[in-house]
Each structure stands twice: as C-alpha cells, then as structure tokens.
Amino acid sequence: MTIKDISKACGVSVSTVSRALNNHPDINPETKQKIMEVIENTGFVPNDSARYLKRTDANNIALVVKGITNPLFSQMIRIMEDKTHNAGYETILRHVGPMEDEVSIAQVLVKSRKLKGIVFLGGAFTHDENAVKTLGVPFVFSTIGNRERRYSNVAIDDLEAAYTATKYLIDKGHRNIGIITEGLSVPSIGELRLSGYKKALSEAKIQYNEKYVYEITEGIEHYTMGNGYAAAGKLIKNAPELTAIFCISDVLAIGACRAVRDSGRKIPRDISIMGFDGIEEGDYFLPRITTMSQPTEKLADETINILLDMIENEAEPKNVVMKAELIEKESVLAV
Amino acid sequence: MTIKDISKACGVSVSTVSRALNNHPDINPETKQKIMEVIENTGFVPNDSARYLKRTDANNIALVVKGITNPLFSQMIRIMEDKTHNAGYETILRHVGPMEDEVSIAQVLVKSRKLKGIVFLGGAFTHDENAVKTLGVPFVFSTIGNRERRYSNVAIDDLEAAYTATKYLIDKGHRNIGIITEGLSVPSIGELRLSGYKKALSEAKIQYNEKYVYEITEGIEHYTMGNGYAAAGKLIKNAPELTAIFCISDVLAIGACRAVRDSGRKIPRDISIMGFDGIEEGDYFLPRITTMSQPTEKLADETINILLDMIENEAEPKNVVMKAELIEKESVLAV
Q1: Residues 6+ apart with CB under 8 A from A145
Q2: Of B209, B211, B255, which is closest to residue B231 (Cα–Cα)?
Q3: Whole-complex ipTM
Q4: Is A265 on the interface with B (CB under 8 A)?
Q5: What structural domains and CATH numbers belong to chain B?
Q6: pTM of the model
Q7: Interchain pair B286, A257: CB under 8 A
Q8: Partner-chain residue, chosen from B57, B228, B261, that has the shortest CB–CB distance to A114
C-alpha cells in the first residue's frame, strides 16, 4: 500500500494526500476527511509513507540554532523536529556559538547535505546579503525580527514587548531600572529590546543611564543562568540604587534572582526582577518570574508551516509578527 | 589543499590525519604534533576538509533522544553535536515520546538516511533483541545502563547513586522518605533508582512503603517540572508524615519544591528535597538543590568517542560506568 494507491482510491492527486497527511491548511476539509477515512480503512501508516513520497536520502531540513541550551529553544526544537518529521523530512541539527556566522555554516550544510530547507533559530538580524542569496533553498528566520522583509521570518515584536515590560516596571513606581541584555554591537534581539527599554524610559521622562545597562559577551552561550548571575551581581554593586532589573530572558532573570538573594536582598521586597520568554522554569522558581511570555508553540508551528509551504508549494517569503504577553507573577512589586 | 596532500606531506595515511584532526586518542602524540604543524603552516581548514574525507551525503549520525527538553540532555546534545560535527559528521536529531520504541524508530532512520552510527540518549534499558541486531550500524546507549554488556553504553551506576542519595537522607535522620520516579514497568533508570532507594531503606531497617512511591506516567515527557509539582503535591497530601522526598531528576525536584511551598511548607525546614543530575538550574534555584551530580560532559564526550571508534576503527562494543557525585547544597536538612 503506497500513497499512490491512496490517491487513486480517493480520486485525488498524490500531493493532496500529502497535504492531508501533513495537516496542511490548504486543503478542502471534506476532501481531507475522505482521505483520512480511506487511510484508516486500509491500515496505511501515514508517517513512513509520507516520507517515501520524497527522495529518501536528500530529504533533510537543517535546524541551525544559536543558543541551543536555552529552554525556550529546547521546547521549540521539540515541536519543530516533530512537525518536520511528520511532514516526511529529517532534521539535521547544528548549533552555532554566539560569535559564529550562521549563514556561512548553512552554506556548507546546503552543499554537503542537499538540504530542502533551513530554519535559523535565534541569532543575528542582518546577514551578509550575498551569502544569503547563495543559499539556494528556502529558509525561515525564527524568533528573529526582519526589518527588510525580503526573507521569511516569524518573531514577536521585540521592541514593543520590551517597551511593555519596562513601562510595566515604571507604572509600578520604579525609576532606577537596570537591564541585562546582549548583542548590542549588531542589529539583534538584545539591541531591539534595549530600544524598547529606552523608549519607555524616554516616554516617562526618565534619564537613560549607561551604568544601568549590562551587555553579556561571555561564554559559549549568552543566555545562561550563570551570565544572569554575574551580570546582576555587577549591576547591583555598581548601582545599589536600582529597584528593578529587566532581564531580556527568563534564564538570565533566574540567575539574577539568585545573585540578588546572595547579596542578602530579597525579591521582590528589595528589588524587582522582570523576565522575558515565559519558560516553564520561571513558573516553578521561588518567586515565580513575572515575564513577557512568547507564544512558543505558535512560533515553532508557524516557522515550519512557512518553510514547508515554500518547499512544497513554492510559496513566497512570509513575515509573521506575533504578540508577547505580559504575565504578572511574583517577582515584581510596586514601590 | 586536501587531506590527501596533508597525508603526503607528513608521510602518514589519510586515516592517521583524520585521527589527528578528530582528537582521536589512538595516535602517537609526536605524529599528531607533526601533522598539526603541517596543517597550521598550510592554512588547511580541518573541519570542512575532514568532512570531505567521507562520503558527503551519507555521513550522518542519528541522535535519538527520549526526553529532549530535559536540561541534562540539552547540555549533552550540545556537546555531542559539536564533537560529531568536528569529526566530519552531521547530526540527525530525533526525539521519541516516553511510550515510543526508540529502536524501531532507528531502524527506519538507518534505512532512509544511510546512517553511519546512532546514539540513543535516555530511554529504556532492554530492547527487542532482533530489532537491535538488524540496525546494522554501530550504536551507543548513553545515560542508559546495560546489564548484558553486549552493546556499547555509557552511564553512571544508577542503583548505587540512588542508594547513596537515599542513605544520605537516612544519615540526616529522615525515616519517612518519599520517592518520585518513572518507568517502573520496564527495566529503566527509574526502576534502578527505585532499587537503590529500597536497598538503602532495607539496610537501615526502614519498612518500604508503597504509599511513599510516586511513579510518573503523565505527559509527552516524564521529566518535567510540572510532573514533579503534581507528584509532590499528591505525595505530601497522601502522606503528610514525609520529611524528605528523593526526586530522580533535578527537574522533578524543582517542581516538587514549588509544590511544597504552595502547600505552605518551607524547604528544607519542613521537608527536605533531594535531586539527581546536577543541572545548572538546580544551582540557581532558591534553595539550591542538593543532588547526585552526573558527569555530563564526560558522559557526552565518551559516548561520541566510543561511537567514532566503532565507526572508524571497527572497535568492539565498550561499556563505561561513571560515578555520580553527591553535592550538598541547601535543600536537605538534618531532622
């Protein structure tokens, strides 16, 4: 029993069967139901057979990840790998260090692995245009903003979300607000979130103070609890007047909380800590981390949907902006 | 400049150059130094060229992971992917659910992707022997014990480590000790760790009480903070006399801590929580989690060393047992 037999039995094309199997939105619901009924009746195993639809040894999608141990990305990798597999592809995983260029790495992968597509998860916002042009396969930037909108990307509005987070702290009466960020030398998430922070301060007529900004440049990965710990330790030593710190990831926020506690202060009584991402860890921490929650599942889902649509239907690049949501927990107090 | 030119210039075989590039232990140090000097002088780029040594489109190693979002595994995946890549291979990532059979999944992958080798990370201890025999490529079970020693594996002594953890709690005066574990219906890490717990109780002449045992069977992954939270909540409700809970992973321990706190009790004052793994998160939690620390880097390193040795030098299967280390932090108190 092959996918061709299914298509004959249903009187539809093979690619329609494939769309039904892959839960592709672009299919008539009645057709889909009919196909799924035939499949059930025949005992046909969709996953394996969908894979055989395509050339088996060159049916790979690369997942190029900057920040592989970030729990936000662990969740997304699980979802994306699942979806990719269910659509008949295998996932080639590559992580890149904070100073490595993900596009050069992808160029080599495309050549040596006959990739069908690439997901860039995390990393910089702007890339060498010539390098990007030579990739030759569809790709999607995930959790990465895209100012020029020529390439597919899925991300939240980082500037807006950071503005919301900072404004929330200001509305709670904070004036001396630190920020722990990264990647300021290039257009990046860190730089956009710093802009959101600045925008909120400026709107509230609070003077921007460089002493309150810590940029992480250490380690094989930037978003780690260890970096949050070290950064917060330095911030509160150099600027003991801080009453709140906005960390641009929950992992950094958890590290920051620990540093504040080790300095003998309590959270949120003595200092408020605001996170970003909405990872599970933040919800079990003592105190629970108040955060800007990213729609992790939707980001991962949409990334793969767009990539598959480009690979299988030659769809045009697509830009999707999602909304982060402020989740009030226990780590921020009004002053 | 190819790897063949390097081998000619050094008067050694191509595979010797490959061993030097891959930091393989089985090479004369002087020969290695000579090769590396030639490489430096010629400006030859080892990583890319080492990859071309092998057939480019069939040079993949699969990483089949049970529990992909466990931070213990995120770290190991990063290290293993790095080592695999540096040795000239790409990593195909596949996660499997707690109820899926990793060996059947690997069988399909071997056929469709012409794999050179497989790492099984996490999962069950015993597998369908016929299925394992048909894999046809080298494989290593990582963080998985191996009673029969016919297949390569790298793991700590789980029974011994759980015994040490439980004995530590007993030595601190605890008598009513709960355990949160998983996978008891099959030979597994959870079952071995429960045996270690029972051994310590029995040695101290403490009656084993089924009411104190919680087996996790929920969710798309077992080792989650959410499961630790739910499990500890039920344990302390059904057995309020518990003064300590041994969680067989730090992720479960963090969830358990949150449940204890939400019940109005404090850690370690009212109840002690003991973890397992030694993940970074445990060190930033409030309180820091007392744990049995696994040698994460060494486990990952050795897994890939053994696999490469089997792939490249037809080495025999190897069994490596490492030691977990008791790390006293803040979540356990003497009673």
Answers
A1: A125, A153, A155, A157, A158, A189, A192
A2: B255
A3: 0.80
A4: no
A5: 3-40 (no CATH), 56-156+297-322 (3.40.50.2300), 158-294 (3.40.50.2300)
A6: 0.82
A7: yes
A8: B57
